[in-house]
């Protein structure tokens, strides 16, 4: 089954404790991205990657890092989490379908930073 | 820059009612337009899309027409069901269309 998986699905942590949210896709997509979803703000892109070892900032990259060492994996790293990073996070991968790219989303990771 | 504005919710309807969720956009060039749906506790799923002016996207009884003259992509369904209760996001694909710019989402609740 074609899918994007994220782990963990739920995480409660404390300020300053480094954490990693994993993302993996089995569709051989080149493009992957991370979004955060906040009430009243919709989804905002954090980082994206166009291929292995190629990453770039999205709209809200502060406080986050990413890496793309393998095509299928795109982990999101919070080196020193703060309460304002409490949010719902989605990983997505994209494929060209006709004239546009379609994005496939993971199930989400709900992060709480106290 | 690119932006998407969709009607604020929440929207509450009775089963079999007609649904419209308005979406307008600002973009340079010729973007692709999408509607995504998020059911409770799940990620976003592509509902429908349109890639050029006057295209109509449709799926599961939902429709939206890409109107370049009014920069709009309103979502419609003739008869909603309780199972349609979800958050709906209008989105725009820009540049290489890798990146999506989302609206803030509209919560739809359909009562029996």
Task: List key phrases describing it.
heterodimer; A: 114 residues; mainly beta; 7-stranded mixed sheet; 4-stranded antiparallel sheet; 0% helix; globular; B: 112 residues; 6-stranded mixed sheet
Distance between the termini of chain B: 41 Å
Largest sheet of chain A: 7 strands, mixed
Strand content of chain A: over 45%
Total helices of chain B: the number is: 0
- The coarse silhouette of chain A is globular
Residue fraction in strands of chain B: over 45%
What can you see in these coordinates?
The complex is a heterodimer of chains A (114) and B (112). With 114 residues, chain A is mainly β. In chain A, a hairpin with a 2-residue loop joins strand 5 and strand 6. Chain A is globular and about 45 Å long. The model of chain A has no long low-confidence stretch (mean pLDDT 93). Chain B is built from no helices and 12 strands. In chain B, the strands form 3 sheets. In chain B, strands 2, 5, 6, 10, 11 and 12 form a 6-stranded mixed sheet that branches. The termini of chain B are far apart. Chains A and B meet through strand 5, strand 9 and strand 10 of A and strand 6 of B.
Provide a quick synopsis of the model.
The complex is a heterodimer of chains A (114) and B (112). Chain A is mainly beta and 114 residues long.
């Amino acid at each position: 089954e074609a899918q994007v998986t994220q782990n963990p699905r739920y995480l409660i942590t404390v300020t300053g404790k480094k954490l990693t949210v994993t993302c993996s896709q089995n569709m051989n997509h080149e493009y992957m991205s991370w979004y955060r979803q906040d009430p009243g703000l919709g989804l905002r892109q954090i980082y994206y990657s166009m291929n292995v070892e190629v990453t770039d900032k999205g709209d809200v990259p502060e406080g986050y890092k990413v890496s793309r060492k393998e095509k299928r994996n795109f982990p999101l790293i919070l080196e020193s989490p703060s309460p304002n990073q409490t949010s719902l996070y989605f990983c997505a991968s994209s494929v060209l379908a006709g004239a546009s790219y379609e994005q496939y989303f993971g199930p989400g990771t709900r992060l709480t930073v106290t | 820059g690119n932006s998407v504005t969709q009607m604020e919710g929440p929207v509450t309807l009775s089963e079999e009612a007609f649904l419209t969720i308005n979406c307008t956009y600002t973009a340079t060039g010729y973007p692709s337009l999408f509607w995504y749906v998020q059911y409770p506790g799940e990620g976003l799923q592509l509902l429908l899309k349109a890639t050029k002016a006057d295209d109509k996207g449709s799926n599961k009884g939902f429709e939206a027409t890409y109107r370049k003259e009014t920069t709009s992509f309103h979502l419609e369904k003739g008869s909603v069901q309780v199972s349609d209760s979800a958050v709906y996001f209008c989105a725009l694909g820009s540049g290489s269309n890798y990146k999506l710019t989302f609206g803030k989402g509209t919560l739809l609740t359909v009562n029996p």
